[in-house]
Amino acid sequence: MVTERRRPGRRPGSADTRGQIIAAARRTFAEKGFDKATIRGIAREAGVDPALVHHYFATKEGVFAAAMRLPMEPAMVVPRIVNGPPDELGERLVRVLLTMTSDVEGRESIVGMMRAAMTNDQALVMIREFITDAILGRVVEALGVSPLRMEAVFAQMSGLILARHIIRLEPLASADIEELVELVGPIVQRYLVG
Fold first, then answer.
1. Disulfide engineering: 34 pairs with which of 83, 129, 175, 184, CB 3.0-4.6 Å?
2. 32-46 tens-digit pLDDT
3. What is the Cα–Cα distance from 103 to 70, expressed in whole angstroms?
4. pLDDT given for residue 141 in this prediction
5. Are residues 56 and 139 in the same domain?
6. 91-115 pLDDT per residue, tens
7. Measured distance CA(176)–CA(25) in Å, rounded
8. Residue 53 belongs to domain spanning
9. Residue 67 pLDDT more than 70?
10. Residues 46 and 126 placed together within one structural domain of the fold
11. Which of 163, 154, 162 is nearest to 192 (CA)?
């Protein structure tokens, strides 16, 4: 019996391979959480080779960002925060996060994740693992900031986003981004560097 080797290239079947991978990733992340999900497991669930998942999304964080419809990929956001003058770090971080949530799509994704985390234990674990590993861990590593300080920044920014976009506390909800950067940036700077 001769087994036919599959040739490299596009796989037969549905043209929406990327969409199938995203759907498989959502199921895998929901079932296993961020830490225990793997590219191989997502590929197996989608019925594709792991190299194809890497082709479309590069990293597990990239797949997560696409699956959760996040407005950013950590590999792209973290350098925007950490690169630049150290005395402007707090302002950069606040500006990046507020700019991401100023876009309707970005805001909907982040607010949706926050709401899910408040009402669903499984979503909470998955989001906490992602934020801790993929975002905060990278910033801590790049800047040499203690995890406690970074989590204080996360708490500050989560509260700001919650008050601005979920509670819609005025005048915070309608304040200009630069006004909030000027107000909150120094606090975040103090958390980060003392």
1. 129
2. 777 788 999 999 999
3. 12
4. 87
5. no
6. 999 998 898 888 777 677 777 777 7
7. 36
8. 17-66
9. yes
10. no
11. 154
